[in-house]
Amino acid sequence: MLVIMGNVTDSSTIRLLIADDDPMVCQSLTLLLTQGSHGLINVVATCHNGQEAVEAARDIHPDVALLDLDMPVMDGISATRGIKSTEPGVHVLILTSVNPRNNVERAIEEGAEGFISKADDINAMVGYITEANAGHPQFSTSSNQQLLEDMREIRLSTRQDEARRLLYTLPQRERETVVYAAQGLSNQEIALRMCISERTVKAHLTAACDKLCMNRVMLARLVERAGL
């Protein structure tokens, strides 16, 4: 249920929209943020799902929107996209009670300017909202850490894709030989497994080294990076 407040605000206050599917959270945050900011923050609307938040932002033009990550109808990240598409000047912060795994980068891509944990004390929340309103992105320690982990995973994934791309430039039999060699098999063992001669094994490995400009140690590392 959307609740639009009737408070009169002046240009010095921060007009805040809160969206959370728990009415008690909306009520508590409204009271605590208003009191904790000594009137600097004025909650102009509370919503209980992402769709309501998008519609409210379009109608009342808040300065900052504080959106719960997990909401029915439309989650916080989708709501961020909806709000930024119609009200690009609204500063969006994501509110969450869990580790925002795999969500930090997605939220940033959609235009969110920070994550706030429900475990943060009210003074910290006031600070995050005030700084976000001034155009300074705000991320809690856990969201910063998660963003770094997500970026690390992306880098690892990119390296793996590149390694596989290189290996798949080789003919299938050469690639199979390289993979077996990387697993520590001897030329004789590779020959038996592939039903070819040791001479052919050596020829495959030499050809692969020449094509990729690598020695056998480098090929083994490439296979390891590719996860094959």
Automatic annotation (TrEMBL):
Keyword entries, A-Z: DNA-binding, Phosphoprotein
CDD domains (alphabetical): LuxR_C_like, REC_NarL-like
Please report a single Pfam family linked to this protein.
Response_reg
Response regulatory domain boundaries: 15-133
Question: Does the entry feature the keyword Nucleotide-binding, yes or no?
Answer: no
Annotated GO biological process = phosphorelay signal transduction system; regulation of DNA-templated transcription
Name positions with the PTM 4-aspartylphosphate: 68
Q: Which GO terms describe its molecular function?
A: DNA binding
| Residue ranges of domain HTH luxR-type in the record | 163-227
Q: What is the recorded name of this protein?
A: DNA-binding response regulator
